[in-house]
Every structure is written in C-alpha cells, then in structure tokens.
Amino acid sequence: MKYLIKAKIEIDGVVDKNDVIGALFGQTEGLLSPDLDLRELQDKGRIGRIAVDLKPQNGKIKGEIKIPSNLDKAETALIAALIETVDKVGPYNAKVQVTRIVDLRIEKLKKAVERAKELLKTWQSAEAPDVKDLLKEIQSSLKPAEIIEYGPEKLPAGSEIEKSDTLIIVEGRADVLNLLRYGYNNAIALEGAKGTIPESVKQLASKKQKVIAFTDGDHAGELILRTLLNNVKIDLVAKTPQGKEVEDLTGKEIEMALQNAVPPQQFLSELEKREEKEEVTQKELEKKEEKLAPQITVTEEQQKPSMPLSIEIPENVMKDMNELKGTLEAILYDDNWNVVARVPVRDLYDTLSKLEANKVKTVVFDGIITQRLIDIASQKNVSYLIGARIGNVLKRDEKVVLLSMYDLLS
C-alpha cells in the first residue's frame, strides 16, 4: 500500500467495530461510480483492511479509523473525503473527520535514512583492532577450554552448559575433558552417580531444548542410561562403539556418535531385543554344558564332603540378589562385600579369568552353576558361587561353596 488514511470518529452511543465498518461501506455505496465503491476496491486489493479502534467515553464512543490505499493521490483524497459523509452508525449520530493522509513510501524512506545514519555512526566509531590484540585472541583460541564445577555437587562441566540450548550428559570428569578438547563445551558429568542422579543435572536438563545422554557402550553405560531415562528428560541417546569409552574417542568418533544418537524409545526397544536374544543364547549354552557334563549318582553325591551352608549376607547384597532375578547378570564382591564388577552372565567366565586371585570372594549371578565356573572360581580362590541353580557337575571343590540364590531368598 502507498497511502494510509487516518480519521477520527465520534458516535453518540455505544457501538462496536463491525457497526462502524458497516456504516462506512453502506453509507458510501452508490455515491461514486462502481469503480470507486469501497467494497469493490477492497475486493480488488486497491483498498486494504479497514482498522477501527474504539474507546467508550461517558456513554459515547470515540475512536480512530485507518484505511490503507493503493490508489493514486487524487483517488485516495476522494475516498478520504467520501468517508467524512458518514453521519450515522446504527441508530446514533456520528461524525468522521480525516486527520491525515500518510505517504507510506516517504515514511519508509525516512526510517531508512535514520537507520542509515545510525549505521554510519557505528561504522565510523569502530576502531581498527590492534595487531597485538588480534594475536592474543588467536593464541587464546588455541588454549583448551577450562572445566568448571557446577552446582552444590561440584559436578565437572563445560563452561557453556548454561548458555547452550543443548546439554550433553556424560559419566565422568575425563569424558567432559575429552569433549572440551574437541570443542564441546556443553557437557556435564554425573561423576560416579550410583542409583541417584544429582539434582543439579535434573534441574539443568529441564531448562534445555535438547538433552543428549552420552555414555560408554558397555554394560555399566547401559545401567547408567536406564537410571537417566527414569529420572531426567532425555531427548536423544548416544553411545560409544563397543569396547570404547567417551574419554578415549577422537573428535570424528564423537561427532559420529552424536549424529547417530537415537530417541530413548528406540534405544530401549533395541536393548530389549538384544537382551531377549542373549537370554535365548545363554539358555542354549547352559543346556549344552549340562548335556556334556557326566551325570553323578545319588550315592556319589552323598559321598561328597559336606559344604558349609552358613553365610552371613549383608542386607544390601540380599537386595542386589533379588534385583538380579531375570536379568542374566552377575555381581562380583570382594572380602568386604564391595562390588568389584557387574557383568552379563555370558562374560562371567572371561571376567574371572582376567582377575587376580583373591580379588573376588563371592559371585552372585542369575544363571546356572556349571563345572566350568566352579573350576575357574577355584583357581581364583572364590569362596562362594551363588547362582539361580546348581547344574549337574562332575566334581566339587571343598574351597568353593555352591548356593542357590532362590533358596536364600525364599
């Protein structure tokens, strides 16, 4: 639109906007040729949307009318004069008076000129940077970003975690440092959280547009992810390649892991399918081991040395034992019932093989105690093997006590 007609209106009664617009159309209709009829002009886009702003005052109405026009100057002036002929709105007397016709093109030009002046002042006032300052800036960019402590828990984090719209949650301090090395300043570490997520992480995550959980691709990482998904708003799940940790990844590997992040629902679905497959495989392996192990007769079993059945198990371990049911997992404890490792049952034999002797005293696992496990437990001086049940074994070792997890829990 090129022009804007501004007029004030006074009405001796209370009406609404539609009444005013109806009066403008109705009382000007037929006064001029059809080509200059307000309704016809609006249909053709020559006249814009009529805006009416009304305010009641002592039982009357006062207000302003704005009519955009794309007509030429003479036609716009004629329309302006035409609306001043409106003398009634509904049953009430009314008076319309045009106060101004604005040339919108000139107004735009004035604003552009004023803005150009401001830009020119800013441009001229900007001083050329000192070469020394430029060199300092370049050198500072080469320094790795510093790690900060966030929240009352003093969690390791990047300096941009509050400014960035995206938050990356990792496991430990070393993970944050590695991400900082490659320019990711928006990560925060849980720093060894076991079972509980720091309150600072929960509150920070709730403010972000996107939250990515980025953990190691091992079993411990999966456990941390489960805890996060149960306590924090997570939008995407990213994992390292199998056998690698976040702290060891290259910049390219970090980029790929974050690009391949998936929604939590997809991660849980894939995890469930894999666990179902592993459960079937574990059961098949146990069946094969049972078939291969020679069967012992009742008489032979009775001739075996009696095993001590008394064992004082701490309450927290009994709780772990109860939670292990149906998981196909194993927990290894030292002499003081501290957790040494937590692994899938399929990896239990290999894990014990790699550990030093006397490092593990008790193994609790959701699986069958086989001859193979008894032999490796004996070699590593494990005192107790507590499984879902005891399979058919050829020989027992007096040093290794075999117990049923389900018997202890009953």
From TrEMBL:
<keyword id="KW-0271">Exosome</keyword>
<dbReference type="InterPro" id="IPR034154">
    <property type="entry name" value="TOPRIM_DnaG/twinkle"/>
</dbReference>
<keyword id="KW-0479">Metal-binding</keyword>
<keyword id="KW-0548">Nucleotidyltransferase</keyword>
<dbReference type="InterPro" id="IPR006171">
    <property type="entry name" value="TOPRIM_dom"/>
</dbReference>
<dbReference type="GO" id="GO:0000428">
    <property type="term" value="C:DNA-directed RNA polymerase complex"/>
</dbReference>
<comment type="similarity">
    <text>Belongs to the archaeal DnaG primase family.</text>
</comment>
<keyword id="KW-0235">DNA replication</keyword>
<keyword id="KW-0804">Transcription</keyword>
<dbReference type="GO" id="GO:0003899">
    <property type="term" value="F:DNA-directed RNA polymerase activity"/>
</dbReference>
<dbReference type="Pfam" id="PF01751">
    <property type="entry name" value="Toprim"/>
</dbReference>
<dbReference type="InterPro" id="IPR050219">
    <property type="entry name" value="DnaG_primase"/>
</dbReference>
<dbReference type="InterPro" id="IPR020607">
    <property type="entry name" value="Primase_DnaG_arc"/>
</dbReference>
<comment type="subunit">
    <text>Forms a ternary complex with MCM helicase and DNA. Component of the archaeal exosome complex.</text>
</comment>
<dbReference type="GO" id="GO:0008143">
    <property type="term" value="F:poly(A) binding"/>
</dbReference>
<keyword id="KW-0460">Magnesium</keyword>
<protein>
    <recommendedName>
        <fullName>DNA primase DnaG</fullName>
        <ecNumber>2.7.7.101</ecNumber>
    </recommendedName>
</protein>
<feature type="domain" description="Toprim">
    <location>
        <begin position="165"/>
        <end position="242"/>
    </location>
</feature>
<comment type="function">
    <text>RNA polymerase that catalyzes the synthesis of short RNA molecules used as primers for DNA polymerase during DNA replication. Also part of the exosome, which is a complex involved in RNA degradation. Acts as a poly(A)-binding protein that enhances the interaction between heteropolymeric, adenine-rich transcripts and the exosome.</text>
</comment>
<keyword id="KW-0808">Transferase</keyword>
<keyword id="KW-0639">Primosome</keyword>
<dbReference type="GO" id="GO:0046872">
    <property type="term" value="F:metal ion binding"/>
</dbReference>
<dbReference type="GO" id="GO:0000178">
    <property type="term" value="C:exosome (RNase complex)"/>
</dbReference>
<keyword id="KW-0240">DNA-directed RNA polymerase</keyword>
<dbReference type="GO" id="GO:0006269">
    <property type="term" value="P:DNA replication, synthesis of primer"/>
</dbReference>
<dbReference type="GO" id="GO:1990077">
    <property type="term" value="C:primosome complex"/>
</dbReference>
<dbReference type="GO" id="GO:0005737">
    <property type="term" value="C:cytoplasm"/>
</dbReference>
